[in-house]
Amino acid sequence: MTDEPEITKAPQIATTRRGFLGAGVAAGGALLGAGAARAAGPDPLITEVQPWAQGLGDGVDASPYGLPIRFEGDVVRRNVEWLTADTISSINFTPIHALDGTITPQGCGFERHHSGAIELSKDDYRLMINGLVDTPLVFTYADLERFPRETRTYFLECAANTGMEWAGSQLNGAQFTHGMIHNMEYTGVPLRLLLEEAGVKTEGKWVLAEGADASSNGRSIPLEKAMDDCLVAFKANGEALRKEHGYPVRLCVPGWEGNMWVKWLRRIEVGDQPWEQREETSKYTDTLADGTSRKWTWVMDAKSVVTSPSPQMPIKHGPGPLVITGLAWSGRGSITRVDVTVDGGKTWMPARLAAPGQDMAVSRFYFDHVWDGSEMLVQSRAIDSTGYVQPTKTELRDFRGLNSIYHNNCIQTWWVKANGEAENVEVS
Ligand SMILES: Nc1nc2c(c(=O)[nH]1)N[C@H]1C(S)=C(S)[C@@H](COP(=O)(O)O)O[C@H]1N2
Ligand SMILES: [Mo]
Asked: Where is the Moybdenum cofactor oxidoreductase dimerisation domain (predicted)?
């Protein structure tokens, strides 16, 4: 594999009292968050009987399958119209700015299709394994359900995520700059078990994963990865995959670029060399500073972004307690630390991870800040279990130049103004 910039030493950070005790206690000993409540006083919302208490609510049959309440109607995937010629071979973005925790609901997880989201039933579903195997096999959906299965949480990030930001800051919102990612709990059969059932011949070194849609989205995957942790998944977040995410079966390739996670998976061919298909040659290669192209940047390097405050999530409450939060992930392991700065990288302070990092899954971080009401340059910086530190934009450009699109994992800056509004800016 080719090298990414060598930034492997975890930087030392300012260990101010507030920084270290960020989990709860501020410098003065007061609880962070104190001052966020209002003094008790007359309030018609409390003293008057409200409409919702004067009648009855919906019965249990009103929505056999629930949707978000109408007040949350803004928390939806969004498309950037000028990015693609139509909505069929296109992409939309996860509303990461408005979510919390780590699991992305399927209903708002970004979609990327090359020939549209197809409708394929379980009954019509077939998965073939052929090529350099002892016995070519075909599995129905019901067959897959009889293999031992696993449940694991993984992120899927499109290699193009943040790609529009290479040359300068462009899109005003974490949803658009970083929303080509989702993080779901998948249930499925390890690909290894299916390959073992067919019996891989000793010459077999690669697999081709192919989808049932018109684009087929064929990708070559080294046999080593296929036998390691790839999952032939049929459930996400406990329920059937949504059509747009590959119903009834998709491939999970943990930590690797989203393009390899073939949806509507129909065929796995075992071969002795890569197939060099469109998606792995003309697409998803990286143009480097010297003009040459690097192919096969499979692993998604450590990355993070502050989701709030951000352009779509301005601060509306004025100075005082402020929760700064965001997401961090690494395709090479787990997130071990996230640092946050409010002064454009002059002083970094450790954020609090909501839970210990999990391999190749998204971590949520919180930084409990007391905002003095002046403008901030807010950034986050992820560090993973290999010791890799998320690079600045300048560090990444030194190595990759200005002509890349894919695999942009640089540190993101939000300029938060005194009025609480935020803008996408570049701090070089
Ligand atoms: N069969 C098929 N698989 C596919 C694609 C596709 O168009 N067809 N798009 C790929 C790309 S580029 C990405 S980023 C992910 C997106 O998965 P999602 O739509 O579930 O977010 O699916 C990948 N798998
Ligand atoms: Mo993608």
From this structure: 294-413
